[in-house]
Amino acid sequence: MNLLSRGLLTLSTLVVFIAPVFGKDLVVAQVAPFSGPQAVTGKAIHAGARLYFDQVNAEGGIGGARLRFETRDDAQQPAETVRLTREVVQQLAPVALIGTVGTSNLQAVINDGVLVRAGLPLVGAVSGASGVVGGRNVFVVKASYHDEVNRLFASLAALQVTRLGLVIQDDGLGADVSAGAEAAAGRNGVVISARAAYARNTTEVAPAVQAMLQARPQAIFLGATTAAAIEFVRQYRAQGGDATLYGMSIIDSKQLLDQLGPELARGYAFSAVLPLESQTTLELVREYLRLRRKSTDPDLSARSIEGFVAAKVLVTALRAVASESRAEPTPAMVLRALQSMRRADMGGYVLDFSQPGRSASTHVDFAMFGSGGKVVH
Prior knowledge:
- Belongs to the leucine-binding protein family.
- InterPro entries: Leu-bd, Leu_Ile_Val-bd, Peripla_BP_I.
- Keywords: Amino-acid transport, Signal, Transport.
- This is Amino acid-binding protein.
- The chain folds into 2 domains: 7-143 and 281-351, Rossmann fold (3-Layer(aba) Sandwich), CATH 3.40.50; 145-248, Rossmann fold, CATH 3.40.50.2300.
- It has helices at residues 3-18, 39-58, 78-92, 103-112, 114-118, 130-133, 145-158, 172-188, 206-215, 226-238, 253-265, 283-294, 304-324, 331-339; strands spanning 26-32, 67-73, 96-98, 122-123, 138-139, 163-170, 191-199, 219-223, 244-247, 269-272, 344-345, 350-351, 365-369, 375-376.
- The chain has 14 helices and 14 strands.
- It is α/β, with parallel strands linked by helices.
- Helix 2 (39-58) packs parallel to helix 13 (304-324) and helix 10 (226-238) runs parallel beside helix 11 (253-265).
- The radius of gyration is 22 Å and the shape is globular.
- 47% of the residues lie in helices and 16% in strands.
- The protein starts with a helix and ends with a strand.
- The strands form 3 sheets. The protein has a 7-stranded mixed β-sheet, sandwiched between helices. Strands 2-1-3-4-5 form a 5-stranded parallel β-sheet, sandwiched between helices. A two-stranded antiparallel ribbon has the order 11-12.
């Protein structure tokens, strides 16, 4: 063997050592609502995750293996979420789950124990409820609902808003938001002067609208999902309601603006627990917008960056596994890589999964729709 051949062999061996080539696709699965009132959220999260996965695949995948993104529609029915999660574990052998939507759905999966039995991580769980944030093998990439509510009530107190109306979804989401609101109200001298709830997985908000019109609070906090929040704003404003409306981060602000138009949306304030598309000083946002401009996916929306971040977190973990081992990634390997992430910079948005029972971020910001639908910080 001549010197050139030896050199090429050595280089080839080095490349294989640095970048192992895996023999099959790496399956990532999402069990989420793709039909029903919450389909808008499931589709938006999916579109954001796919945007990043497609880019990774275009660049050669993970160790030469493509990411195969599989979905199942649970219509946001908790029993279906559990059944389909078990099914994908048995049939697809994913390395991770991503983007399951809904507090009650996630709590059902956590209580079932399927994640622990399979040693499987669920990245980017779409809920900030305390029971979800503390769930084993569950990784939340944004601030918790209690972080969000605490910041909001402190801001309301600074604005001398003392009488607040609270509208919640009648389920685990609503219960968690309500508990956080009661605690935050007491700390900040805010009185929750009116309460109303609407049925889960519906947009039947007329009774809640009437309750708020009669109570006339200074501001109304919507602990609601996207479709129901849009319908509440529509009906409340149409009937002369003039309180300032504050929506939780789980409400897709772009969908609200698109469906209501700039005039009805004007003055709607919302909390942001992930970077906004307007924050172009962040590399994460610039990367997201760069890829989004190339996409024709109609499901990309304001909520999609959450799926994008979750996908980036998962890929970071997969690459860490690939750099440390020539074996194909297993769920257990990915789980350990995620648990070891400390001060992981996703491009100006830093996440830390090292504290069990805490979400990876405490970032909470606020914005409002101004004239012409422009976002005002």
